[in-house]
Q: What sequence folds into this?
C-alpha cells in the first residue's frame, strides 16, 4: 500500500492482488518480475487498479479509485447491549476472484469493556463460518463506563465508509479502515488498517528471526503447517494477533478472530499499515487499548483464556531424544546424569517407544522393562513423559484403536462422507476429529489403556504432528479438484505453488464437527489440546493436567504448553529462539521453550554449553535432539560430553533450580492475571526507544535480566541496561551507569544474569530434583532501588494439586523492604506455608552497613551478619 492525500483523513493506494497472466501486461514493464502469478480460475479479474510508477519504493502502487469498496446506507442504530449496527453497500468493487461477491454487509461495533472494543464485518443476512465459541469464547458480558479508553467513529462516505478507533486520552488513531480496497467475496476478503506507528510485534507462527517486525512490504502467510521453523515460512500455529507500540510508549493489541488461511502484508513508514487477505469466514477484530504494552497483553490474554497453571516439576530441566536405541540407552542417560549431579526432572521418549509406532502402545520387545524404568524414575522423584502423534492405524490385527474409532464415529470424513485415510508414522491412518465432543471419551479410553492396562505411568503428554501433518497430500486417494481444495486465491503458504491447500495435510473439503476442514484446519491442534486437557483431568481428577503441543491457535495456552518444534543445532537458532519465546509469551503461553542444543544436526561442544546458559532461563527447559532417517545425531545431554562440560553447565542449571520459587510465582501470576513470564525489555521500559528492537536479551518477570552469548568464540556481550539499578546476580556488584550499553566479559564458563533494583527474589537452595529442592530452606535476595526500597512476592502450594488452584488452597506472601523488611500474607490457605523458614537474606545496593539487625525485636549478633563485596 501507498498513501496519498485525498478526501478522507487520507486516501490510500494498496499493493495489488495477484492477477492472472492475461492481466499482468497492464503492470509497467519494470515491475513485472516482482510478481508471483498464482494458479487461479480463468474467470478471475484484477481491474479498477490504476498503476503508478514510483522511484521511491520498490513496490509498484496499485491505486484504488475513491469509489471503491463500501459506503454506509441508512442510519447507525444502537442496540440494548452497547452495540452499534449499520449496513454497508458495495460501490464499484470489482469481482476480484471467483465466487459470490456480497453487495450488502453488516458492520457491528461492540463496546465490550472500558479497554476492549470489537469491530465485526459480515454479509447481511447470509450465514458465514465463524470461529466456534467452543474453540474461543471471548466473553460478551459487556461492562463499559464513561471512563472507557476509546472512542469509535463511523464515516459514512462517499467516497467510502470507515470505522476509526481513537485513544481518548490523546486522540491517537489506533485502528482505522479508511483505506480503499475493502473486498468481501465468498473466498477472498481484503481489508487494510492503519497503524499509529511502525513498531509492530506478533503474528504467527513463523521463524520471524527478530522480535520487532520488518515493515518493508513484508508478507507473512498464516496457516497451520508442518514445515521446519528454519526459514521464515508458515509453520505449526496460527496467531493472527499483533501489538503496536506507539512512539510515546503506549500500545494496543489487535486480534483478527479468523481461522482461515490468510496473508498479512506490512506497509512501512510514513504510513504504516496492515493488509489482511483472508480466504473465508468474516472480519472480526478485537482491539485492546492498554495503554501500556504490559496492560494491552494482559487484557488480550484475559480475553482469550489465561495460561494453564503447570505443575511445579514442569519447570525443571528435562531430557529427550528421538533415536534412543532401546531401553538400555535411556537407562544409560539416566545413570550418567544422576552420577554427574545434573539437576534432572523429566525423562521424555519420542516415537521409538511405541509398538510399530501405534499411539498408546509400547514395544514389549525392545522396551520390555519400560514400566520398571518408570518406577525407577518415580523412586528418584523424577517424571516420565510420552509422545502421542494422534493417528489411528488401520488394518492392524490386535490393535483396536481404529476399529473402536469407527464404531464411535469420531474420525474426520472425506467429501463422500467416508473416513479420510492418510499416512503417518504407523502407516495408513485415520485422523481423529477433536472438534467432535464424542472423541474426548475415545481419546480418554486409549490414554487410560496405556496408563492402566499397559502400566505406563506417564506424568504428562506430548502431542505432536497436530497441524494436522500428513505424509501424503490430502489423502491416499488424493483430493477432488474443487473450490475448497483449490481455492481461487491461495496465500503464500508452503506448497501453494502446487495450486492447492493440501500440501502434507488433509483435503480441505473434509468434514468435521465444527465445519469444513477448509475453515477449521488451523484449529486441529487447538481442539486436540482441549480434549487432551480434559482427558488428563479424567485420568487424574486431583492433579493439574499438563500437555505440551506443537500446533496451536488463539487461546491454546489455556490448555497446553508450547515448544517451538524442529529447530537446528546451529548458532543462529540461539538468537531466533529468544524472539519466538517472547512472541508466544504475548500469545498467552507462560510455559514455552525451544529444544536446547537443537533438534536437527550434531550439536557442537561450545554451542551446546552456550545454549544451556541460555536455555536454563527458558520458561520450559528441555534438551532434545533427533535423527535424520537412520542417522542418529550424537547424544547431547550434559553428561554425554566430558567433565569440563559438566562443570560449566551444572552451575547454570543449579541457578535455575535456585530461582524456581520466583519462576513458579511468575507462572501463578500468568495464570491468575495474564502476566508474561519471559518478555522483551520494552514491556518494562516502553518509553526507552533502545528497548524497542532488543531481542538478544530478555527478562524473566520484571526483575531478572538475561544477556546470553549467542555467537561462536564470543567472550564479550554488549548488553543494554535500561534506567534502573542493576546488580550482577553472582556478585551483587552494581552496573553503573544505567541507560546505556555495557560490554560484559563472558568467558565460556560464565553467564550473564542481573537483578533489577526494587525487587525481592525468593530463592531456594537447589538440589537435583524439584522434589528435594522444595524441602530445602528459603532465602531472600533483596535488590534495592534508588530509594533503598524493594518488594516481592512468593506463591506457595503443593505443586501439582488441581484443588489448590481451584479452591485457593495456596498462600501468597508479600515482602516489603523499606527501613525494615516486612512479610505479610495476601492469601494464606496453604498450611505448610505457615512453617516457612528463611535462612539467609542477601541485600544488594546498601550504601553503608547497618549498625544493628533485629528480627521480631531480637537483635542478632555479628556472627549472623556477613559482608561480601564492597559497600
A:
Amino acid at each position: 500500500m501507498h498513501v496519498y492525500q485525498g478526501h478522507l483523513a487520507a486516501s490510500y493506494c494498496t499493493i495489488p492482488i495477484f492477477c492472472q497472466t492475461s492481466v499482468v501486461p497492464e503492470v509497467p514493464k519494470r515491475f513485472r518480475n516482482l510478481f508471483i502469478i498464482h494458479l487461479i480460475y480463468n474467470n478471475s479479474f484484477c481491474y479498477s487498479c490504476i498503476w503508478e510508477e514510483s522511484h521511491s519504493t520498490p513496490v509498484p502502487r496499485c491505486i484504488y479509485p475513491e469509489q471503491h469498496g463500501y459506503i454506509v446506507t441508512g442510519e447507525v442504530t444502537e442496540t440494548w447491549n452497547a452495540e452499534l449496527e449499520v449496513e454497508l453497500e458495495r460501490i464499484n468493487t470489482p469481482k476480484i476472484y471467483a465466487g459470490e461477491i456480497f453487495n450488502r454487509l453488516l458492520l457491528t461495533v461492540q463496546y465490550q469493556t472500558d479497554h476492549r472494543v470489537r469491530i465485526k464485518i459480515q454479509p447481511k443476512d447470509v450465514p458465514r463460518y465463524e470461529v466456534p465459541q467452543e474453540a474461543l469464547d471471548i466473553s460478551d458480558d459487556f461492562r463499559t463506563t464513561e471512563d472507557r479508553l476509546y472512542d469509535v467513529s463511523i464515516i459514512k462516505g462517499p467516497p467510502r465508509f470507515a470505522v476509526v478507533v481513537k485513544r481518548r486520552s490523546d486522540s491517537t488513531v489506533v485502528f482505522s479502515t479508511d483505506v480503499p480496497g475493502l473486498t468481501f467475496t465468498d473466498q477472498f476478503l481484503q481489508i487494510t488498517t492503519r497503524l499509529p506507528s511502525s513498531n509492530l510485534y506478533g503474528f504467527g507462527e513463523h521463524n520471524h528471526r527478530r522480535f520487532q517486525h520488518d515493515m518493508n512490504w513484508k508478507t507473512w502467510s498464516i496457516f497451520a503447517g508442518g514445515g521446519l521453523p528454519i526459514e521464515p515460512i508458515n509453520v505449526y500455529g496460527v496467531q493472527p494477533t499483533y501489538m503496536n507500540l506507539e512512539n510515546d510508549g503506549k500500545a494496543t493489541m489487535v486480534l483478527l478472530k479468523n481461522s482461515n488461511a490468510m496473508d498479512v502484508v506490512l506497509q512501512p513508514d510514513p504510513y504504516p499499515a496492515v493488509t489482511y487477505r483472508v480466504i473465508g469466514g468474516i472480519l472480526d477484530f478485537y482491539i485492546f487499548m492498554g495503554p501500556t504494552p504490559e496492560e494491552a497483553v494482559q487484557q488480550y490474554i484475559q480475553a482469550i483464556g489465561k495460561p494453564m497453571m503447570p505443575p511445579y516439576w514442569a519447570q525443571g530441566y528435562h531430557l529427550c531424544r528421538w533415536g534412543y536405541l532401546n531401553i538400555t540407552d535411556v537407562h544409560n542417560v539416566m545413570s550418567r546424569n544422576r552420577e554427574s549431579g545434573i539437576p534432572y526432572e523429566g525423562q521424555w521418549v519420542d516415537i521409538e517407544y511405541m509398538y510399530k509406532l501405534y499411539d498408546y502402545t509400547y514395544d514389549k520387545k525392545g522396551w520390555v522393562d519400560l514400566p520398571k524404568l518408570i518406577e525407577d524414575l518415580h523412586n528418584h522423584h523424577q517424571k516420565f513423559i510420552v509422545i502421542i502423534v494422534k493417528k489411528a492405524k488401520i488394518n492392524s490385527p490386535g490393535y483396536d484403536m481404529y476399529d473402536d474409532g469407527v464404531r464411535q464415529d469420531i474420525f474426520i470424513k472425506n467429501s463422500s462422507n467416508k473416513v479420510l485415510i492418510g499416512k503417518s508414522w504407523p502407516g495408513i491412518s485415520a485422523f481423529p476429529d477433536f472438534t467432535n465432543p464424542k472423541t474426548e471419551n475415545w481419546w480418554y479410553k486409549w490414554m487410560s489403556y496405556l496408563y492402566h492396562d499397559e502400566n505406563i505411568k506417564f506424568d504428562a503428554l506430548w502431542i505432536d504432528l497436530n497441524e494436522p501433518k500428513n505424509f501424503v497430500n490430502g489423502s491416499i486417494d488424493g483430493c477432488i479438484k474443487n473450490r475448497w481444495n483449490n481455492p481461487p486465491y491461495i496465500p503464500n503458504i508452503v506448497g501453494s505453488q502446487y495450486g492447492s491447500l493440501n500440501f502434507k495435510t488433509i483435503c480441505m473439503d473434509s468434514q468435521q464437527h465444527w465445519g469444513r476442514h477448509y475453515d477449521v484446519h488451523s484449529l486441529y491442534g487447538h481442539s486436540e489440546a482441549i480434549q487432551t486437557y480434559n482427558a488428563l483431568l479424567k485420568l487424574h481428577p486431583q492433579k493439574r493436567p499438563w500437555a505440551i503441543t506443537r500446533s496451536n491457535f488463539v487461546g491454546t495456552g489455556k490448555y497446553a504448553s508450547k515448544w517451538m518444534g524442529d529447530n537446528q543445532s546451529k548458532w543462529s537458532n540461539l538468537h531466533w529462539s529468544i524472539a519466538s519465546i517472547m512472541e508466544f509469551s504475548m500469545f498467552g503461553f507462560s510455559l514455552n521453550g525451544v529444544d536446547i542444543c537443537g533438534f536437527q544436526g550434531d550439536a557442537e561442544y561450545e554451542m551446546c554449553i552456550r545454549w544451556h546458559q541460555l536455555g536454563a532461563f527458558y520458561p520450559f527447559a528441555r534438551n532434545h535432539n533427533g535423527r535424520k532417517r537412520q542417522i542418529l545425531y550424537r547424544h547431547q545431554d550434559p553428561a554425554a560430553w566430558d567433565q569440563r562440560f559438566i562443570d560449566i553447565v551444572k552451575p547454570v542449571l543449579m541457578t535455575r533450580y535456585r530461582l524456581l520459587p520466583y519462576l513458579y510465582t511468575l507462572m501463578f501470576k500468568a495464570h491468575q492475571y495474564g502476566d508474561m513470564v519471559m518478555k522483551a525489555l520494552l514491556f518494562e521500559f516502553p518509553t526507552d526507544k533502545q528497548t524497542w528492537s532488543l531481542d538478544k536479551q530478555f527478562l524473566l518477570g520484571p526483575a531478572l535480566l538475561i544477556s546470553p552469548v549467542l555467537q561462536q568464540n564470543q567472550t564479550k556481550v554488549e548488553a543494554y541496561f535500561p534506567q534502573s539499578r542493576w546488580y550482577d546476580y553472582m556478585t551483587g556488584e552494581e552496573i553503573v551507569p544505567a541507560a546505556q550499553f555495557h560490554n560484559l566479559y563472558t568467558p565460556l564458563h560464565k553467564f550473564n544474569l542481573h537483578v533489577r533494583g526494587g525487587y525481592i527474589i525468593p530463592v531456594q537452595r537447589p538440589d537435583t530434583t524439584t522434589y528435594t529442592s522444595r524441602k530445602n530452606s528459603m532465602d531472600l535476595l533483596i535488590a534495592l532501588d534508588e530509594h533503598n526500597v524493594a518488594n516481592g512476592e512468593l506463591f506457595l502450594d503443593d505443586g501439582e494439586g488441581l484443588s489448590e488452584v481451584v479452591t485457593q488452597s495456596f498462600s501468597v506472601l508479600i515482602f516489603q523492604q523499606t527501613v525494615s523488611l516486612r512479610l505479610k500474607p495476601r492469601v494464606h490457605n496453604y498450611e505448610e506455608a505457615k512453617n516457612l523458614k528463611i535462612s539467609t537474606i542477601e541485600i544488594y545496593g546498601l550504601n553503608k552497613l547497618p549498625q544493628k539487625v533485629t528480627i521480631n525485636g531480637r537483635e542478632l549478633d555479628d556472627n549472623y551478619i556477613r559482608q561480601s563485596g564492597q559497600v
Observations:
- Residues 524-539 form the longest helix (16 residues).
- The first strand starts at residue 2 and ends at 4.
